[in-house]
Specification:
mainly alpha; two-stranded antiparallel sheet
Length: 325
């Protein structure tokens, strides 16, 4: 085994094998669904942080617009002020990529695990942990690898591809690919930033006229286009992958959509409070500095009591007395 197989593929293989051994009728599809939910719960803390970043980025949109207006096209100054704004409020725009970077090796490892269960069943014993071999289902599988049940609900073969495979499984897998595309659009829509009203052709037309395109508007337009294009791409990708991977992806997307809805909508007050925390702290610091500056100015301009008394006495002395009648 290489390092990737030892530290990622083998643990995922044994976790999926354990779930497979305890579910009723050793249903591979149900095992994948349970496995996916476990993975999503394990990623919950990272998802919460990611969505906090999304909320914070949305709340900073007015400040970003103000910086854009104040810098008057100076891209270097605009970038510096944007980075300073992100830093002062604890916003890390690229932190959301961390979820994708973590899920990608899991997806690749799961693909290898499915290949072990379907194509390289002679390697099942190699990847199985020693303590797992005491489970009755695992013992039977090791003795007879061909007894592995790759069906979902007894009718859907999850080792097959939607195309060009024909049969009842093919129809289900095509529907599964469609659900994967739709759920991909939903979760992208939930976390998408405020988009620009301009179209891509408008931005490109302005660039053709010599006007320097606004990077924020360009990014928003490109993200909007990608949000619409990505589901179609995922549909064809799911058609070309084994049904087990499509089931994993659909289950993950559905759970992510519910998770994001819960955190972004139902828990919006708490999310706003956390997102505002950095802004309030920065505001308090600015207010404290302003008050200290005002106090110093007041201390300089404020006359002391001693000076006030001297001024009063001098005024009384210099005032001419009225002659007595």
């Amino acid at each position: 085994m290489n390092i990737f197989e030892l530290f990622i593929v083998q643990p995922i293989f044994n976790l999926l094998l354990f779930i497979y051994s305890i579910v009723p009728y050793a249903d591979f599809g149900i095992a994948i669904i349970i496995f996916t939910i476990i993975i999503r719960f394990a990623l919950w803390p990272l998802v919460v942080k990611q969505l906090h970043q999304v909320k914070a980025m949305r709340k900073l949109q007015p400040e970003l617009a103000r910086i854009k207006k104040a810098t008057k096209g100076n891209k270097q100054l605009e970038s510096m002020q944007m980075l300073e704004l992100y830093k002062s409020h604890g916003v890390k725009p690229f932190q959301s990529i961390l979820i994708l970077l973590i899920q990608l090796p899991i997806f690749i490892a799961l693909f290898q695990v499915i290949q072990i269960f379907t194509i390289h069943r002679d390697a099942i014993a190699t990847f199985t942990y020693d303590f797992m071999q005491n489970l009755p289902v695992v013992q039977d599988l090791l003795a007879n690898p061909e007894s592995f049940n790759e069906m979902f609900l007894g009718v859907i073969d999850l080792t097959q591809h939607a195309l060009p495979y024909a049969g009842a499984s093919s129809i289900f897998l095509i529907i599964l690919a469609g659900i994967a595309a739709f759920t991909q659009y939903i979760i992208s829509k939930q976390t998408s930033p405020t988009t620009s009203s301009k179209r891509l052709r408008d931005v490109l037309a302005e660039a053709g006229e010599g006007k320097e395109p606004d990077q924020a508007e360009l990014n928003a337009v490109v993200m909007s286009k990608m949000m619409k294009f990505l589901p179609f791409m995922m549909f064809f990708i799911m058609l070309s992958l084994p049904g087990a991977l499509a089931l994993y992806y659909v289950t993950s997307n559905i759970f992510a959509a519910i998770q994001q809805h819960f955190l972004l909508k139902r828990d919006s007050e708490e999310m706003d409070k956390i997102a505002d925390q950095g802004i309030k702290q920065a505001g308090k610091k600015a207010t404290a500095k302003a008050r200290a500056r005002e106090a110093r100015e007041a201390e300089i301009t404020k006359p002391s009591k001693k000076n006030e008394v001297n001024v009063t006495r001098l005024s009384a002395k210099d005032t001419p007395r009225k002659k007595e009648g």
